[in-house]
Amino acid sequence: MNILLLGSGGREHAFAWKIVQSPKCTNLYVAPGNAGTSEIATNLPLAVTDFTGIKQVILDKSIDLVVVGPEEPLVKGLVDFLFSEEETKSIPVVGPSQLGATLEGSKDFSKRFMQRNNVPTAAYETFDSNQLEEGLAYLEKQSLPIVLKADGLAAGKGVLICETLEDAKTSLKEMLLDQKFGEASSKVVIEEFLTGIELSVFVATDGKNYKILPEAKDYKRIGEGDTGLNTGGMGAVTPVIFADKDFMAKVEEKVVQPTVAGLASEDIPYKGFLFIGLMNNNGEPYVIEYNVRMGDPETEAVLPRIESDFVDLLWGIGTGSLKDYELSLSSDYATTVVMVSGGYPGSYEKGFEITLPESVENATIFHAGTAFNADAKVVNQGGRVIAVTGRGKDLETSLKNTFAVVEQINWDKAYYRKDIGQDILKLIK
What we know:
Layout: E1 2-7, H1 10-19, E2 27-32, E3 42-43, H2 51-60, E4 65-68, H3 72-75, H4 78-84, E5 93-94, H5 98-105, H6 107-116, E6 124-128, H7 132-140, E7 146-150, E8 159-162, H8 165-176, E9 187-192, E10 197-205, E11 210-212, E12 217-218, E13 221-223, E14 227-230, E15 235-238, H9 245-265, E16 272-281, E17 284-291, H10 298-302, H11 310-319, E18 333-340, E19 363-367, E20 370-372, E21 378-380, E22 384-392, H12 395-406, H13 422-428
Parallel strand pairs: 1-2, 1-4, 2-3, 4-5
Antiparallel strand pairs: 6-9, 7-8, 7-9, 10-11, 10-16, 12-15, 13-14, 15-18, 16-17, 18-22, 19-22, 20-21
Helix pairs in contact: 5-6, 7-8
Catalytic activity: 5-phospho-beta-D-ribosylamine + glycine + ATP = N(1)-(5-phospho-beta-D-ribosyl)glycinamide + ADP + phosphate + H(+)
Domain ATP-grasp: 111-319
Family: Belongs to the GARS family.
């Protein structure tokens, strides 16, 4: 079949890498893609929010399946648009409806959904700019630290953990009155701080049936030892030692099943991936947030562990036939290290030529923020530039294979964390 994949990051390169391994894929088009996807698929110069352009590509290229990588087009209603158009309404799309995407597009919406469906999550209240005084009064009654979340999409940066009451009050004012995160913080969710160990659980669902993909742990902060500013993710590890069979059974029973059942009972059309950010709190799962797509960089670690045909999985999601899909997973470890532009997540320079190894062993290089310059050289074009995923029978081997490749990649001011996976290694030992 002819497949259209939307997006340009490391997640999309990993999707493309996995899709072209399937004999079911005849042609893969990636819009807009990056330097890495251009080597294995056909890039199209098209924005993920250009709905009419996407429709035209579907018709021009005789597309049989559409896969949406990032959240923005989903939150803006791409799936609803394609299903409302006569020429594209019969084409399966992997991605939820606009209402389903509100699980990520609005923290308040997702928290209310969790409450209605008895999904365990932290206690919370939501306030807008007209309720500032109520919000400040609410803060005075809460335990510290306390979490403030911008209600809308804030590129992974709209969550603040406040250690003092003064900091919390100042931050609430900045978010509601000064629009610290723009329109995203026109409403703010104030949430109880959960302790424990974070992990990400990924679910493929056709709205009724589901398959639980490998879980992962990601590393969000820029500095080693989990210090410094939050980023879109500096690395990931799968499997996760603190997500054993007993814990994952609780996740399925207390989180996945009521979530999927809630989507069905509330008539929320959802055919896509659900990324559940969890806290393991003394062996009990609590949902921190839902995302309505695969995570990045977790995707780059999770997909290499899927041994069954990935296009069959995507087709099962898009056509509502997921119950017939047999998911087969490798027991190997996969570890991903993200290489970023110097200065990220703040300002950084673009256009530096990237030195890449001609061949690699036991690892895969995924491009994220890359492009070609006028001389057809690969250069850094974004903050997160390259993700390297190594594999191995154990975590130590997997990390060794990852860093062996990372050390061969370079460009001016490149940076990466050298401690990815070390906390898990200590738990194992």
